[in-house]
Amino acid sequence: MITESEIKAGQILVVDDEPLNLLVVEEIFENAGYPNVQSTTDPKEAVTLFKQQRFDLVLLDLNMPGMDGFEVMSHFSEQNHEPQPPVLVLTAIGDRETRLRALRGGAKDFLVKPFDSEEVLSRAYNLLEVSLAHKLITHYSSTLERAVRAKTRELLETQAEIVKRLGYAAEFRDTETGEHTVRVGHHSRLLAIQIGLSTDEAERILYAAPMHDIGKIGIPDKILLKPGKLDADEWEIMKTHTTIGAKILRGSSNPLIECARTIALMHHEKWDGSGYPKGLKGHQIPIKGRIVAIADVFDALTMSRPYKSAWTIEGAMKLINEQSGIHFDPALVTAFNTILDQLIEIREQYADQ
């Protein structure tokens, strides 16, 4: 609840080209216990003051030289103050057309000179009460919105932490490292931003990409951990990690989990249609899958594993460029080349332990 002292402490601006009128209004408010009253005879100065300060009420004359009250209200509305302080028009022009024009132009109330001081104070008090209540509600709504955003961010980070650790679980069954999944996430986010995806979508890909190989949980150890080359039958089983991952993640209404499901299913599809599990081609492959495909291959090539040495950055990029239009989306290859320096920084930041 707003108290009387809070209402009377409101910031008031009085605009009238007649100095005597200003003195009268100032005296009325001073005697009634309103300490924060500013006044000006210059309508242009009033617009400047309105830009610089946040008033709770404006008392405005209409008939002024250089800039009339209607134009002043027009300039006020351009400032988009939220909430917009109410305007109480005090004018000697009291015909119906002028009253309606003032009210339609932004005025909240209208008094014709000469006016009764008690009526001015009553109308001003009511307008200030509404203005301050609106300001209080706006502040509360803003505070609540920030709290909701913070809570939403906290929930997203919790979901992302769970997703990341599930990604680790898959890597611990393989010969890759947890850092691989983290790097793939960051490489994918960077590429998503580079091609113009929204910040929210890029963040979702960052957190979902580490789940790309979650389906390896369902691959038998004798195949997953086989030191030599897989035979044809074993390779067919290995390829099912994409569909296994999609099954693990299916059925969720959570956008992050659904994004992870798409990536798990699609990150081995190839631009020319020779990938798996569905043999999709070109733009049939969701953009998330195309992004993670290139990020995964780049990191897998440039990391050491028990059965291979790490490729050089140059060697990995040579292969990626050669596979443009075959394995990879050509537009993504171009974008990937553009962000190479940042990709190298990510590799250094999240180096294998």
TrEMBL record:
Residues modified as 4-aspartylphosphate: 61
Gene3D superfamilies xref list: 3.40.50.2300, Hypothetical protein af1432
Pfam families (alphabetical): HD_5, Response_reg
Protein name from the UniProt record: Two-component system response regulator
All copies of domain Response regulatory, residue ranges: 11-128
Record flagged with keyword Metal-binding: no
Biological process, per Gene Ontology: cyclic nucleotide catabolic process; phosphorelay signal transduction system
